[in-house]
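A student in our group prepared the protein record below, which I am reviewing. This is what I was given:
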Amino acid sequence: MTDKSVILGRPAGRNTAGGAPVSGPTHGNLSEEEIVAAALRVVHEDGLDKLSMRRLSRELGVSAMAPYYYVSDKRELLDLVATAALADITAPDSGGDWQARLRTLIDQIDDRLARYPGLGEVLLEQMLRKQRHLIELVMEILFDAGFSERNVLLAYVAIHTYLFGRSGIADQEPTIPDRTGLPEAIARAARHLDGVHAQDFYRFGVETLISGLGVQLDRQRPANA
């Protein structure tokens, strides 16, 4: 089980007694775990753009200054929130089909992005600083599949861009307010808008992405033979 002191980034030396871990630090009746849990609730219910230190203090029912005992500013809070939101993502079982393993991992990440609106925007900026374990999980699958080092890098960037770049519009249903006078090609496609939803776009996109990576792997193989 992952040590929560690592996930929550507790200051060293404040949570142990005789070398054994104990409950998180408290400030009055407030603990660091409660702060992060409250922040996740705000993001889940209202989106990341509604999370502020003042909004967090209201959620906790404490003074506006109380959360600053644990986090110095909103940036640090966002780091903790992102880490906690992604903490239970697990590596798919090794040895299976690489495309199925990659899809399982991507689906886990997308589930967290859907659960916590706005999280993708944070991850676009902080992945290399704070979430390297996710990058490693993706790259290990790509290396196991046989991608070259260069293509592992390119494949990861494609996955990263699709997953986190689309998160800002993932829950929005596409609409065309005025469908009269549309060019023929747009009109033919637009007639299906009412029958497709956000998850349809996600499934089509991720299946296309993974299938495309398979094509790239096949193209690479003759050069390595």
Residues 1-27 have pLDDT under 50 and may be disordered. The chain has two domains: 29-85, 89-224. The radius of gyration is 21 Å.
